[in-house]
Amino acid sequence: MTADRGLTGRQPKAVQSALAVLECVARLGAGVTAKEVASALDMPPATAYRLLNLLVGEEYLVRLPDLRGFALGRKVAGLAGAIAPVRVPQAAREVLAELRREVRAGVHLVLYTATTLRVADMDPDLPLQDTQLVERHLHATAAGKLLLAEQPEWRDLLPPSRLTRFTAATVSKPDQLDICLAEIRAQGWAAQFGELHDRVRCAVAPVRSRAGELVAGLALSGGSGTQPPATVDSVCRSAALLAPLLT
Amino acid sequence: MPRLARVSPVAGLHRRRLPFVEVLAQSVSALAPSAAMVTTPAIVLAGSGVATLPALVAATLLVLLVAGCVAVFARRLAAVGGVYTYTARGLGPFAAGVGGWSLVIGYAAVAMSALVGCALYLAALFSFSSSAVAWLVLLVGGLAGWCTVRGIQLSARLALALEVVSIAVVIGVLIWLLARSSGSAGSAALVVDARPGWGGVALAVVLGVTAFMGFESAGVLGVEAQRPLVAVPRAVVWTPAVAGVLFLFAAVAQTVLLRQAPLDVLISPVPVSRLAADIGWVERLLDVGIAASFFACVTGSVNALARVLFSMGREGALPSVLGRTHRRFGTPFVALLGVFPVVVLAPVVALAAGAGARSVLTGTLTVSAFGYVLAYVLVCAATPVFLRRLGELTALPVVGGLVAAVLWLAVLAAAVFGPSLPGGRWPAVVWLCCLVPGVLWVGWLSRRARLGRVGVYDEPTVGSVLPGSLAA
């Protein structure tokens, strides 16, 4: 049911118009009305209204509570986040280097947008087995679960049909994931053991802006037995150090 | 610029769980197509003869006009109160209160009707005596109540399965009956080929639109649907379109079949069942199908009813306890538990007082029709006003909304003042008696300016816009 009959690949004009509407809302700013979009784009009003409703339906746009104005939806962050270049400040790299000397586990930095994550700085000596898996399968990694726990409704980001099972320990039932995310919200950090690769452990401490927004995660990874509980504390301390450097 | 809330005013229901087919199941189950396919064409044929097919086409078009109006709203806001909330956004709280209360009566009455229907067909299936119907109403009501409290996904999936089975059974039986039909005219042919007067045509249209009622009920799944602004309007338009085709097929089939039948078959309660009566298992299969469809209709109507009351509770138009949701199941369980005793006990009392099961079934169905029609009139009238408020008015919705409102007002007038519907005049009286207290209550609230929050829906929150794009 994802394909809309009104918009097929054979109607390049419709796609162009839809993107123009999206761009117009981004340019004119939140609160722009349908009429303003139509006149700014010199488009027949009925067409503009239809495209706006379509984009709202797909959640690229949001209709504000007065029902007249439009704003960019959370989903747009996914578009931008996936293509933005990753930059980690030198000061933050030094904190990571310091931590890597301290603990006997892979130390990685993950950067978050509202809906995506990128592995920004991977431990050169103890790398992750597969960064693509980490970035894609949010339910099976500690970094991903931290992002899911941050969502108003994780199902918006990851349809329950995509809870792929990697190992026997993977959380693949929506109800289980609900419980798991509630725990993460309560304790403030995320961990998993053997859910993506057998016997590989990972824990992530959040790095938050002053407003409380999740901007990055400091991850430890390694085989079983690499992380005594004390390590989590030192990671949380380092995460706190990183906050002013990354926000 | 409006500030965004942190939490949606209708939070507490399970968010974004139902894929499109389960949203569709809500509308389809509340409409109960297979029960209507079996019963409606024969009733219309008995009263309106050759006008049956044109009247059903007209009814389908009328319903599609309302569907178009409802879809205008459903594409723009994710409501939990369905047509009630839509009316509020167009015509304001007072009109919404009247339409909403009428809709509540409609959903409650159709739930009672379907409950009795389900019990009646189960009793026929197991050859129970007619005194068992009241007990079966209690049993079925309890089961339906458990399903709806247990979670919207469970009841939607169950309804979907039951509807698929029952529609398949009805189509199969009709095709089978057509294949073995002889072709010679029976004594019912005189009635089937009769030319009715205008009163008969009007009655046929009114009965025709009654068969579609409930199609708009996907509008209550604004929170629970995965992509509400796409799935709800689609379900609301597709359901009557497909149901219209099914009804026309059933009407054509029954016109052919009943022309060859004796007159007493045509005027029997379920002529299709009588036609298949010579082979016991076919008749039983039909009973199973219709009972299943009625059961799905109970859950569908009560789900919709409880969510309208839930919205009213959250708005302060009714006690706020109705706005409570179950922590684990995410259903408006207080509203559900509040309505179930009424929906179950009203027909049980009527049956215990000596009313025939069939007259309870048709009587409550007629009451519900009045309830729905008034709600439809108001939501159609609300459409152009709503779009004007938004500054998104175009020619088509103005014309469509006004034409629909006028035509549906005519349907209401025909139903109230025209030739008498099944069940006589008392359903109209019952409907009015239920409506008046609601209207007085809304009037009282509106004088005390306590309807300010009417029209709540699943507003976007801070979490739903692009972070940083809007000062929170």
Overview of this protein structure:
The complex is a heterodimer of chains A (247) and B (472). By secondary structure, chain A is of the alpha+beta class. Chain A has helices spanning 12-28, 34-41, 45-57, 75-83, 90-102, 131-136, 142-150, 154-157, 174-187, 229-246, and strands at residues 32-33, 61-63, 69-72, 106-112, 117-121, 190-193, 200-208, 214-223. In chain A, the strands form 2 sheets. Chain A has a 5-stranded antiparallel β-sheet with strand order 5-4-8-7-6, sandwiched between helices. Chain A has a 3-stranded antiparallel β-sheet with strand order 1-3-2. Chain A starts with 11 loop residues before the first helix and ends with a helix. Chain B is mostly helical and 472 residues long. Chain B is built from 17 helices and no strands. Chain B has helices at 20-31, 33-48, 52-74, 83-91, 93-125, 132-150, 152-179, 189-192, 198-210, 228-259, 263-266, 271-275, 280-315, 333-352, 357-390, 395-417, 426-447. Chain B is globular, with a radius of gyration of 22 Å. The interface between A and B is large, with 37 and 34 residues.
Question: What is the secondary structure topology, with strand pairs?
Answer:
The complex is a heterodimer of chains A (247) and B (472).
Chain A: H1 12-28, E1 32-33, H2 34-41, H3 45-57, E2 61-63, E3 69-72, H4 75-83, H5 90-102, E4 106-112, E5 117-121, H6 131-136, H7 142-150, H8 154-157, H9 174-187, E6 190-193, E7 200-208, E8 214-223, H10 229-246
Antiparallel strand pairs in A: 1-3, 2-3, 4-5, 4-8, 6-7, 7-8
Helix pairs in contact in A: 1-2, 1-3, 2-3, 5-10, 7-9
Chain B: H1 20-31, H2 33-48, H3 52-74, H4 83-91, H5 93-125, H6 132-150, H7 152-179, H8 189-192, H9 198-210, H10 228-259, H11 263-266, H12 271-275, H13 280-315, H14 333-352, H15 357-390, H16 395-417, H17 426-447
Helix pairs in contact in B: 1-7, 1-10, 1-13, 2-7, 2-9, 2-10, 2-13, 3-9, 3-10, 3-15, 3-16, 4-5, 4-15, 5-6, 5-13, 5-14, 5-15, 5-17, 6-13, 6-14, 7-10, 7-13, 9-16, 13-14, 15-16, 15-17
